[in-house]
Amino acid sequence: MMKMALYLLNLRVFRMLKPVKNLIYLSCVLCFFASCTATRQTATVSKAAPEKASSGSPRFLENITISPLNVSAPSPSAHKPLVKNISKPAMSFDNLTNIEKCSLLQFKFGILLDKPVETVWNERLITFLEDWYGVPYRYGGSTKKGIDCSAFTCQLMNKVYGITLPRTSRDQFEAVSQISKKNLEQGDLVFFNTRGRASHVGVYLGNNKFVHASTSSGVMISDLDDSYFSKRFAGSGRIR
């Protein structure tokens, strides 16, 4: 009786475990076929693979190859400058030395005259200009409280060049030797027709600039090409 009970119990357990065994068995079968398929695919790929590439040229899938990169030294022409024949302005040591020796007045009047500072060499002239620059205009005046144009030219020519001039602009115009504008030199006189012939006078400084006592701004530096003066230019002259 006891044996019969054990047999029935084992039979029930076997029936309960049978589905599990079947599932395990099915899994094993599927794994087997999957491995077989993978093996066939690997064999197919290996058969279709191209021949081994020669050394130095690696070959990859889909016949993609990489060739060694040949890097050669650039030719000298590759380093030629893009801009050619650029010449630098010449600057001699003597010029540098001269500039270093220039005074503040030379720099100031080099700017006012628009000239290289080392060419503003007349120290007596620029010292006189500095002393009188900005003195107001006064008709008939001859001092630093006020001065007119002809009195100013008298002062400048006497202090700088040691030349004595007549007092009025008209008399000064008659006293000089007439010269053309293109032949003007520093120290020459320039005349303008503001109220009649030679009614205004100034002293030429170079680079088309002249100094004069103007009615509007007193002693100042102007340009001969200014529209006001170019229209009224009456002549120029030199004391010989």
Describe it.
The chain has a domain of 117 residues: endopeptidase fold (from Nostoc punctiforme), CATH 3.90.1720.10. 42% of the residues lie in helices and 15% in strands. About 15% of the residues have low confidence. The chain has 7 helices and 8 strands. A hairpin with a 2-residue loop joins strand 1 and strand 2. The chain is α+β, with helices and mostly antiparallel strands and 240 residues long.
The main pleated sheet reads as: 6 strands, antiparallel
Report the CATH topology name of the domain at 122-238. endopeptidase fold (from Nostoc punctiforme)
Binned, the helix content reads 40-55%
Architecture of the domain at 122-238, according to CATH?
A: Alpha-Beta Complex
What is the gyration radius calculated from CA atoms?
Answer: 54 Å
Order of helices and strands: HHHHEEHHEEEEEHE
The count of β-strands is: 8
The averaged pLDDT comes out at 76
> What is the number of helical segments per DSSP (H or I, 4+ residues)?
7
Unreliable stretches (pLDDT < 50, length at least 5) are: 42-55, 76-97
